[in-house]
From TrEMBL:
TM helices/strands, residue ranges: 86-106, 118-140
Biased composition (Acidic residues): 57-69
Region described as Disordered: spans on this chain: 1-71
Organism lineage string: Eukaryota, Viridiplantae, Streptophyta, Embryophyta, Tracheophyta
Pfam family of the protein (one): DUF3464
Alphabetized UniProt keyword annotations: Membrane, Transmembrane, Transmembrane helix
Name of this protein: Protein PAM68, chloroplastic
């Protein structure tokens, strides 16, 4: 499905955008169409140079600013690794916990077994809590080195990354 937009002639986009004129104007699509014309992503904005004055000091400042911005950026391959591992460590316990609801319903209605109310609560609490812990473990157990894939279970990476993770949470604002 193509997104209808009124583009000037000669403007190229990365995404398929129809250039046919339509009589209806949809104002709620204007931000979307503006995004399609010049996608910027979530990274830092690109700097444009407005003429060079020949100051070496300005160039040094720019390189220092770029290094500061890039220091906190997580590489895309590491982010994808974290997301895929979180999908597994969250998805399996969450799906298992959701499967217990129809199971307990079947026990109670189908087999007429009186299951105490606290049993489904404890089981769902355990599996949903495990899924919540899976978010942290998915982040910490993936290799943070873009050149190294890491192990299947990620236990060695988790042992190495837990101190860094806690330090970033508790002592992240303290810089020497």
């Amino acid at each position: 499905m193509l997104i209808t937009n009124r583009l000037e002639k000669g403007v190229e986009t990365e995404y398929p955008v129809s250039t046919t004129k339509s009589s209806t104007h949809l104002p709620h699509l204007t931000p979307l169409c503006a995004t399609l014309r010049s996608p910027r992503g979530f990274g830092p904005p690109k700097k444009t140079k407005k003429g060079s004055k020949g100051n070496d000091n300005d160039e040094e400042d720019e390189t220092e600013e770029e290094e500061d911005r890039e220091a906190g950026v997580i590489p895309e391959i590491v982010t994808n690794r974290m997301i895929s591992r979180m999908g597994f460590t969250v998805g399996v316990p969450l799906f298992t916990g959701l499967l217990f609801f129809p199971f307990f319903y079947y026990l109670k209605v189908g087999l007429k077994i009186d299951v105490p109310t606290w049993v489904p609560f404890i089981v769902s609490f355990f599996f949903f809590g495990t899924a919540l812990l899976g978010v942290s473990y998915g982040i910490v157990s993936s290799s943070w080195d873009p050149l190294r894939a890491g192990s299947f279970w990620g236990w060695n990476e988790a042992q190495k990354n837990w101190p860094v993770f806690w330090q970033s949470l508790w002592g992240g604002s303290k810089r020497k």
